[in-house]
Amino acid sequence: MSSNIDIQKKCMWCGRAFTAHKMSTSCCSHKCASAAYKDRVRKERVVAYQKEQSIQELNESIKDLGQKEFLTPTETAKLLGISRASIYRYMADNTIKAVQFKGKTLIRRKDIDALFENPASYNKKLPKERAPITEFYTTAEVKEKNNVKDSWIFVVAKKHNIPRTFNRGKTYWSKKHIDNYFAKKAGDPEITEWYTVADIKEKYGMTLTAIYGLASANTIPKKKEGRMVYYSKKHFDIAKGVAQPEEPQYYTVAEATEKFNLTRDQLYHYATYHNISRVKVGKYTKISKPELDKLLGTPKIE
User: Fold this and answer.
1) Contacts of 160 (CB under 8 A, 6+ apart)
2) pLDDT tens across 65-83, in order?
3) Any idea what DSSP says for residue 28?
4) DSSP class of residue 95?
5) Residue closest to 222 by CA, chosen among 195, 182, 243, 190
6) Distance separating alpha carbons of residues 226 and 289, to the nearest angstrom
7) Please, what is the average pLDDT of the chain?
8) Contact criterion met (CB below 8 Å) for 146 and 225
9) Nearest to 90 by CA among 127, 128, 124, 117
């Protein structure tokens, strides 16, 4: 039984317009359908061959790496089938031993093989059991200490998953989690001068909406004490153009690698993994000096 459907289509092989009687018909004739099928099979064979060749080349390159006595981190990552960033993490925690020769990092094949002789010592550690929470604040104590309302406590606790428990009709909040939350809200201790909203209104004649908009757009540090909100005086003045921002300090790549005895690959890994600020000056890349010093500098006890 023939179909009564007439659909105007364009032949996928020869491009000629024709009338199809099925939705699935894509060619105008048996000849074009046969040619299209043969072309599709031919392309599939080419893709399969290319895939087989790439696998063979990869196996040959890995085989060549297996015969080398010393490997670079890139070659080690290729041999083990993991990322180069993982290799640098294993080097940092001394799981994989490496030696530097004038900026070139080398790893002994013998040390890589040794990892598999005692695999139990490198198995992923099970997460530690959480210590039970034993110290609590009552709702009244949280209110008194931090000058907040009951409703505010419950809203913030729900938003930040602060643990609580109930006993004899009273609600008790985890002391550790409450203290951590308010410590983050306390503001940067290095900022010593603050504006109140009233100060900003008086000095700059801004509305409350304008103040919130400027603070949000420029990520101006703020702190909250009870119901009062304070904004960093220095950062607000910079945002209004009254004060000039401090000139950031940067290392060149050469300076950083020399100071911290790193290869370029290691430096870029640290900068990427820890989100250290970088700027492009012409063809040179510069890395934030304060952030890199904080990460890689000698620890101090003040």
Assistant:
1) 177, 181
2) 667 778 888 888 887 778 8
3) S
4) S
5) 195
6) 36
7) 81
8) no
9) 124
Q: Which of 2-6, 61-65, 188-192, 194-198 has the highest mean pLDDT?
A: 194-198
Cα atoms in the 13 Å half-sphere on the side-chain side of 290: 4
Give the single-character DSSP code of 297. S
CA dihedral 278, 101, 92, 90 (to 10 degrees): 110
pLDDT level of residue 64 (50, 70, 90 thresholds): low
18 burial (CB, 10 Å; 0-12 / 13-18 / 19+) is middle
Compute the chain's Rg from CA coordinates.
Answer: 33
Element (H, E) at 246: none
Give me 129's structure tokens: 């059991």
Q: Which residues pair with 252 in a beta bridge?
A: 286
Q: In what order do the strands lie in the sheet with 70-71?
A: 70-71, 104-108, 99-101
Tokens 């020769």 belong to which residue? 101
Query: What is the pTM (predicted TM-score) of this model?
Result: 0.33
In angstroms, the CA 245 to CA 237 distance is 9
Tokens 């540090």 correspond to 221
**Token digits of residue 24:** 């699935």
Q: Partners of 288 in the beta sheet?
A: 250
Q: Counting every residue, how long is the chain?
A: 302
Give the ranges where the chain is alpha helix by DSSP (H): 30-66, 73-80, 84-92, 109-115, 139-146, 150-159, 175-184, 197-204, 208-217, 233-239, 253-260, 264-273, 289-296
H or E stretch including 121?
Answer: none
Task: Give the integer Cα–Cα distance in Å for 251 and 284.
Answer: 11
